[in-house]
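Figure S7 source data.
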Amino acid sequence: MIDLEFLINTLSLGSLYALLALGLVLVYGILKLVNFAYGEYIMIGGYGLYFSATVLHLPWWATMLFAVLAAVVTSYLTELAAFRPVRNKSANALIVTSFAVSIFLQNAVLILVSPRARAVQLPAVFSRTVSIAGATTPVRNLIIIGTTVVVLVALSVLMKRTVLGMAMRAAAEKFTTTRLMGVPANLVISAAFIISGLLAGIASIFWIGRSASVDPVTGSAPLLIAFIATVMGGMHSPTGAVVGGFVYGLLFNILSITLPAGMISYRDAFMFVIVVLFLLFRPEGIIKGGYTEERVG
Amino acid sequence: MPMLTVENLMASYGVVRALHGISLEVNEGELVALLGVNGAGKSTTLKSITGVLRPVKGTITFLGKEITNRTPEFIVKQGISLVPEGRDIFGQLTVEENLRLGAFVSYERDRYKADLKEIFELFPILEERFTQAGGLLSGGEQQMLAIARAMMAHPKLLMLDEPSLGLSPTMTDQIFVLIKRLREMGSTILLVEQNAERALEIVERAYLLGNGEVEFAGTAEDLKHKVDIASVYFGGDDAQKAGVTL
Ligand SMILES: Nc1ncnc2c1ncn2[C@@H]1O[C@H](COP(=O)(O)OP(=O)(O)OP(=O)(O)O)[C@@H](O)[C@H]1O
Ligand SMILES: [Mg+2]
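Tokens for the predicted magnesium ion complex:
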């Protein structure tokens, strides 16, 4: 049953979900905040694609760059304007702030652009199909897998080999002690938001690419996936997020081929059942350990 | 002018007042002890000096510059490093990474290499464990790492919060020998200890804290004579009766 097509499908879906989950966990690691505005960075990335293509008429590669940049800038600005002022307050204040940011961004787009969906065109190469050893797959799937490999390698080099990466890992473990080394709190937190935005931006290209449209609530589904993937994989390390993303992709694809046709549309319900089972029997996720629970303060 | 001056420092945790206006000084080149029973306010004093805890009132001056209410990262840059209570090394990071972060404020490639060499001479075990996760070290080794990490910043003032806590007698001896040696090498040190007898053997001056106030300040000799240390440290309520509030 495990044929090449299934494998490529699962790897590409898992890659996308891993990127989504990773962006959420990086900020969680340092601020201990599940950032509910994370989906909106993806949504803004989508509008970045739309705007740069339809209004600015940029070439396709530039629209992608523009989308990623839009997500990064949005993520960074929300950190500066919304999260930084409440950082030393309670954990609840941070969560509520992230809801507020999410609602604000959705409504801003709704008012400034339109409540209706906008069509987003990705280059034709994305939807072309290729055959590898008898398996047929859209090129898009291969691009997702390749991009994810590059992103994961780059991120792990950043985290392991640079002082900024060391400081971020240290801050995820012991925030106050990291500041006692002279590492500015703002530096590691901003870096986390910027990288989170970068991942959201890259993921947005593939996410929006699948539906070929974007609307103000486009971000809620990827946020949910990122959240579920991190619950399964483990909130407490980037590795957990990546593992969770791939496990989510695998389970989702298994459900897609095993469920009878009439029940396919209930796939998400099944995913929720699985999450509930995780929360009941393995609340720490597949990958234990990693970040501690010390809050910024 | 003293290197560090703390004046009338008051600090609270929420509604709980932990320091009721303490004052102390550390001069350049001195080794000063801050003593007191559990809960006396020793760590709170260090947390206030390092900027981890915002004082309610009072001023802290370091090298002529007021550092009250500044951020921890700013204060480290001015030259104050802390070896925190309970070591507080980064367990997930390697020994190497712990030391590299210790050098965050002072990093220069050549000096860093030279510093590492020096650290390895003081603590050969850290060279052996260089690429291992800090969390895998024993308690004593972690304490050495914590001290080495603080030294990497070339602090003008080194503050140690109960470095001997939880260590074996041999390890404790080693730590005290090391502190003495650092002192001889010219470091200025503020040492927090519960082990008053040991501390008084190596320091010049000491402050005795109790209930968030300075109960006694003077030379190590004075403190040894005037305060019946045994009663303070083993007596609980007897401590008050023994007349610690001099
Ligand atoms: N995080 C905190 N929240 C609330 N109260 C605290 C906190 N930390 C310390 N305290 C209280 O402040 C007072 C002083 O504590 P501090 O940690 O400074 O004592 P200490 O002299 O360092 O004691 P020890 O020798 O046990 O380390 C104590 O009464 C303690 O209960
Ligand atoms: Mg203490």
